[in-house]
C-alpha cells in the first residue's frame, strides 16, 4: 500500500498534476513506438519521488487525492525504468570491483602518525571525537571528487591506523562509520563505502552515507524499504541528526563540535613519540633485570669493575625512568580536558606504560638488593661455622656435666623450692648459649639454598640436634622440680585445710543454733567441695611425679643416663596413702555433721513456716471481722456473699492443715535429733487457738447468711402470692355483670376461695414479719467478743 504524503506537500502535488497529465499523452505515444527505444524520464517523475542517484529507486507515494492518477501514469514507465536501472547498477558494481585494481596496499605493521602523515593531512578520513546516540565513536570518510592512485592506500592506512588507536573494548562495542559522499561521484562513493566497510570488519556497528540533497528530499517522507542489519544507511545531511546529535558532529557535517585536525595530528605524534620512548625504556630495564637475575652464581671473587658497570647502568636507567614518568604524567595532564574516546583510549595506554616502568623499577631494585645480599652471604658463612662449633662444644662439655650433677627432687616444700632455685641458676647460665644458638640457626636458615654448603648444613643439623636434646633434658628436669614443688605444696595445703575445717565446722558446731544451721551447712558443703578438688589435684600431681621419675633419662647425644629416683618414688607413694586415709576419716565426720545440720535446718524451716501459718490465720480473722460481716439486701446478693464466705473458709482450712503438717514434721525431726519438744507444743497450741476462733466466727457468719437467704426468699414468695390475689380480684371486678345471675354466683364462690387463701397467707406473712424482726435484732449484735478474747 502507498503511504500518504504529509500535509505540507499537498499543494505542491496538485501543482504537479498538470505536468503529469501532459506527460501522459507523451508516454502513450512512446508505448506505441516499442520497447527498444531509450527512455528519458520527464521532470514530473522526479518531482513525484524518483531518485536515480539511489540504487534502489523506490518511488514516493503521492497524496491520497491523486493516488489513482499517479499510479496510472507510473505503471507503463516503471518496468522499463527498473530494467534500465538494473543494467546501470550492474555496470557500477563491475566498475567498483575493478576500480582499485593494481593499487599497492599499505603494510599491516603497526602504523604511526609520522608514517602516514601525508595521508592524515589529506583528511581523507578522520576521527572527529564525537559519538552517536549509543555512545559509539565516529569515523568520518570524505569521498573525493575523483579517484586517485593514492586513494585506496591512504584509506587503508588511515582505517588501519584508526583501528590501532581504539582499545579492544571500544572496538567490541562498535564504531560508527560516516561516509560524506556529498562532493564525490556515486561510483567513487560506492567504492569508498565498500572498502571502508571491509577494512573495519566486525568493528563497524553502523555505516551511514551522507548523500547530496535532492529536490524532494526536504519536502517528502522516504518511502524506501526498511533498513536491514549490516547495510549502509543512506540519508541527507539534514537527517544525520536523527542518528548522531548535532553537538557530536563537526562543522563539516552540520554540527557544533569544534575539531582541529592539525592539532589532533600533533597530539597523536606526541603520544606516539612518548609511547616509543617508554617502550624502549621498558625493554632496556627488562634487559638489565634479566642480567641481574643471572647473577645467582656471583661470588666475592668477581671484579669491582663489573659491579661498577652494573651500577652505572642502573643509575642511568633510573634517571631516564624518572624523566619518562614525569613526561608521561605531564602528557596525561595536558590531555585531561579531552573527553573523546580516542584520547581516553590513548591515555589508558600511557597509564599502562607508566605502570610497566614503575613495576620494572621495583623489579630492578629487588634484583639489585638480592645481588648485594648474595655478596654478603659468602662472608657470613665462615663466621657461622665458627659459631656452630663453639655452641656444640659447650653443650657437650660443661653444660652436660652440670646437669648430670642434679638428680634430686626434694622431700617437702622447702627442699623442692631450693632445688628449683638452683635449677633456675643453671638455666641462666645456659641462656646466653641458647641465644647464640637461636641467632646462628636464624642466620643459617635465612641463607639461600644455593649458598648453603653441605658441610655447614651438616654442622647446623648436628648443633640443632644437640641443643634440642639438651633443651629437652633441661625442660624435663624443670618439669620434675615444678611437679615436685606443686605436689608437696598441695599436700601441705590439704592437711592444713582439713584440720581447719574439722575444728571450725565439725567440732565447733555442737551447739544447736537453728537460725545459723543453713548457713553452716552451706559453708561445710563448700569447704568439702574445695577439699575434694584439692585432693584430686594432689593425687594427680603425685601420680604425674611418680610417672616422670620412672621414665628413662638421655643426654645431649641421645645416650641413656642412669639416675636413681627409687627413694623419691617410695616417698611419693607413702604420702598418697596417708592422704587417702585422712580423706576417709574426714569425709565420715563431715557427712555426719552435714546430716545433723540438714535436720536442724529443716526444723527451723518447718517451724518458721508454721509461725507464718498462725500469722495468716490471725490475718484472715481480722479480714473476716472487717470485710465479711455485711448481709446482702436480696437473695441473689446473699447467695454471692455465701459462696465468697465458703471460699474464705476453705482458704483458712487449708492454711490450718498446712501449719499442722509443718508442726508434725518438725516434731518428728526433733525426736530424731533428740531435741526438746516444748517450743513445738507451744506453737501447735497457738495454731489451734487461732483456727478455733476463726472457725467459730466464720460459722456464725455463715449461719446468718443462710437464715437471711431463707427470709428473703420467703418474703419474695409471699409478695408474689399477694400480687396474684390482687390481680385475681381486679379481674373479677372487671368481669362482673349485675344482670348475669350465674356469673354473679360464680364470682361469689371465687371470692370465698380468695378470702380463704388470703387468711392463710396473712398468717404466713405475720410469722415471717416476726422472724424478720428477730433476725434484725440478731444482726445488730456485733461479733466483737471474739476480738476481745483474742486480744
Automatic annotation (TrEMBL):
* Compositionally biased region (Basic and acidic residues): 14-27
Q: Which GO terms describe its molecular function?
A: phosphatidylinositol-3,4-bisphosphate binding; phosphatidylinositol-3,5-bisphosphate binding; phosphatidylinositol-3-phosphate binding; phosphatidylinositol-4,5-bisphosphate binding; phosphatidylinositol-4-phosphate binding; phosphatidylinositol-5-phosphate binding
| Keywords associated with the record | Repeat
List the biased-composition ranges (Acidic residues). 28-38
Q: Which residues form the SESTD1-like spectrin repeats region domain?
A: 482-584
Q: Where is this region: Disordered?
A: 1-38
Q: Which domain of life is it from?
A: Eukaryota
- What Gene3D superfamilies does the record point to? 1.20.58.60
Check the UniProt entry and state the signal peptide residues, or none.
Answer: none
A matching Pfam family: Spectrin_SESTD1
PANTHER family attached here? SEC14 DOMAIN AND SPECTRIN REPEAT-CONTAINING PROTEIN 1
Name of protein: SESTD1-like spectrin repeats region domain-containing protein
